[in-house]
Amino acid sequence: MIIIGIDPGLAKTGFGVIEDRRCTEYGVIKTPSDEPIQTRLRTIFHRIQKILDTCEPDELAIERLFFSRNVTSAIEVSHARGVVLLAAAEYGIGSVGSAGGSGSGSGGLAVFEYTPNQVKQAVTGSGRADKKQVQKMVTALLGIDENIPPDASDALAVALCHANQMSGQTSGIV
Amino acid sequence: MIIIGIDPGLAKTGFGVIEDRRCTEYGVIKTPSDEPIQTRLRTIFHRIQKILDTCEPDELAIERLFFSRNVTSAIEVSHARGVVLLAAAEYGIGSVGSAGGSGSGSGGLAVFEYTPNQVKQAVTGSGRADKKQVQKMVTALLGIDENIPPDASDALAVALCHANQMSGQTSGIV
After folding, report:
1. Would you state the pLDDT for residue B76?
2. Which of A85, A140, A83 is nearest to A109 (CA)?
């Protein structure tokens, strides 16, 4: 089972791919703030499409957005999140023999959403863990011995959260 | 000059096309709430792509999103807005001889954003006009003698706002 986790953002979209709890790929898609928003969204969309084509994930995990966030940031994240979800919906459609998810009902890659608390709980055992703790546990759980950019680490955290959910665990560190 | 105005939303995305201040096309793209969000975004994206291909607009006008809105609704609108802007960025790229905007710096359709107040001001002369007044003035200004759905009327209002801006008018009813 190959899972891609995505942490969307207009300036930085993190992604991380895990297969049987090993990390096979991670990175951050950056877009320059002096470009028009539609050009930045296009960059994110095409990069995600390429990553999906290369990594051939079975499922996609992404954080659910909440009220409590800063509204301006929620608006920016949602624009990026929209094109990431579109890339998931487009994945494998129209091409023969490519991987397709089971959850969306009309083709595409199955998408699973988790709250920020569920993600933190899954990788640190606490829903109130800070970013540093999440980053530390992600590298420990996946046996990564290099520094991961925070956005990639958040993406891997949501992928791990989904892997736990699929295997019936309630916490990733149990 | 052909201008398309778009009023994005996850459940209903209104669109309206004007050419020399005559309405040539309007409508509402609806997506069912029981479908996964990625499927709904895919529907909006492909419908907008088809409308752009059919109407061949020179420019796209869309409302800017603001803090004051309800956060949950802002998140939903932003997802839809993201795929609409992506369709604008993709428009005409890679195909020969199709129309392309001038504003985005790297191909695609030029996008212009206006605040809700600018739009209301442009079509009614007051930034504090209500939806009904906007709808009434849009039909009057464009000489439409049928009932327009509110989402299409809002889309036509932002297209009219942009037409005024381009012609140097500060208010659409002057």
Report:
1. 92
2. A85
Rounded to 5 degrees, what are φ and ψ at B110?
Answer: -65, 135
pLDDT digits (tens, 9 = 90+) for B70-81: 888 899 999 999
Using the predicted structure, report yes or no on whether residue B27 has a pLDDT greater than 80: yes
Is A85 within 8 Å of chain B by CB? yes
Chain B nearest-CA distance from A32, in A, is 13
With H, G, I as helix, E, B as strand and everything else as coil, classify residue A159.
helix
Q: Do A89 and B42 touch (CB under 8 A)?
A: yes
Distance separating alpha carbons of residues B69 and B14, to the nearest angstrom: 18
d(CA A142, CA B102): 47
SS (H, E, C) B114-130: ECHHHHHHHHHCCCCCC
* ipTM here: 0.88
Residues in chain A: 174
- Rounded to the nearest 10 degrees, how much is the dihedral formed by the CA atoms of A111, B63, B155, B37? 10
Nearest residue to B77 (alpha-carbon basis) of A156, A74, A153: A74
Q: What's the mean per-residue pLDDT of chain B? A: 88
